[in-house]
Write a structure and sequence with these properties.
CATH class: Alpha Beta
Strand order of the largest sheet: 1-3-2-8-5-7-6-4
Number of domains: 1
Strand content: 25-35%
Number of helices: 9
Distance between the termini: 22 Å
CATH architecture: 2-Layer Sandwich
Radius of gyration: 18 Å
Shape: globular
Helix content: 25-40%
Amino acid sequence: MTNKIYIHETINVTVAKRRAYLDHFTDVWAPRSRELNELHCFGVWGTNGSTGAWPEAILMWELDGYEAFSRMMSAEFAHLTDDHAAIGDHYDMYWASAPDGVVDKDGFDRVLAPTPATPSLDEAIAAGIKGAIYYHQIVTVRPGAVDDYLERHDAEWRPIAENHGLVFVGSYRTMLRNDSEAVVLWALPDHALFERVDTTLRTDPKAREFVRSTSNLGVDWVGKVLVGAPANPLDTGRRL
């Protein structure tokens, strides 16, 4: 069980500079974010455009609980009211030194709370959790039902998925929602395992029963495939 908090970022990038963007996040954003905001890079991925929006990067950052998150929030935009703030303007710190063509873009962030079954970054690395590709889901449920769904997901769905070769990375409640959204992440050790996601896993009698028995929670989800950046911590087994 982890008491961490996660920031999940969906960032629009460019096709021409996709690799440069991912490298910039691991080479520049990760060490600076760790030093300034106690943010630890959990993962950096590019979305496989055949399965979702493109071109797109997905980043996850790990914080040591609510206290660290509160410190980050209080310091992040202090420069707007204090010219002597320890942390200055984001553009100057993160984008000004970026490679040619890697410019600031728009995106969308989520703040995530992990379930008790979710490993921290250190625990995931120690367990050797990594994938050739990753299966990412945004799950929606009726308002107020996210805790019930995640408890059942981790107790009932996870063993079914693992029986088909998927490796559990984490399941998270999206904060600042009406307890109606979750994020789930799996590692697929081999590209060929994607077939199991859409065929044998989907038609497994136990899987079909889980879908049926949780239908009263209003469950729906959208999945996509992610590919790790070259320095993605889960893939290299090294913190950034």
